[in-house]
Specification:
Distance between the termini: 57 Å
Structural class: mainly beta
Order of helices and strands: HHEEEEEEEEEE
Largest sheet: 10 strands, antiparallel, barrel
Number of helices: 2
Helix content: 10-25%
Number of domains: 1
Shape: globular
Radius of gyration: 16 Å
CATH architecture: Beta Barrel
């Protein structure tokens, strides 16, 4: 009985949430334009199995035709730095598509005013949903990333990203 109650509690607290990040009232987010150049992110990664971990992400984005190629160096705790690459391109006024070295298939994104929503599946089968919210200074984005498996939230990353140039 105790095991069933614990499993039910985990299922309830582990479900993905509908958090809406605060965003600018007057700015519109163009993720391709924002990430062209250098950015720096400071984040906390919270997982079900470990204590929260500080993460930093240094990115350099450059345009290749109409696509943004974004190279990132990710550092967390005592682990070696790892590198990943995003490639994103617009497919219509409020939609973009892309690829990511961590993803098994395509990356899909939409924009709505100051927010962008990104979805993809990681190589290990985890589903990722990400929300980016442009702040009123036009140079800062709040990022919330949720990772789920079998519909249960297993990790959340909250990040502040700043445009450096």
């Amino acid at each position: 009985m105790k095991l069933a109650a614990a499993a039910a509690a985990l299922a309830l607290c582990g479900c993905a949430s509908d958090v809406t990040l605060p965003a600018s009232d007057s700015e519109t987010l163009d993720p391709v334009a924002f990430f062209a150049g250098r950015t720096h992110g400071e984040a906390m990664l919270d997982t079900l199995i470990e204590s929260p971990v500080r993460v930093t992400v240094d990115s350099v984005g450059r345009m290749r035709g109409n696509a943004l190629v974004l190279d990132q160096v990710i550092r967390s705790a005592d682990k070696p730095a790892r590198i990943r690459r995003w490639t994103m391109w617009p497919v219509s006024p409020n939609r973009f598509s892309g690829s990511l070295t961590d993803a098994t298939g395509p990356v899909h994104g939409t924009t709505e005013g100051p927010r962008a929503y990104i979805r993809y599946t990681m190589k290990n089968g985890f589903k990722v949903e990400q929300q980016l919210a442009l702040q009123s200074d036009g140079r800062t984005i709040l990022n919330r990333l949720e990772v789920t498996k079998f519909g249960l939230r297993v990790a959340t990353l909250t990040e502040t990203i700043r445009k450096l140039d």
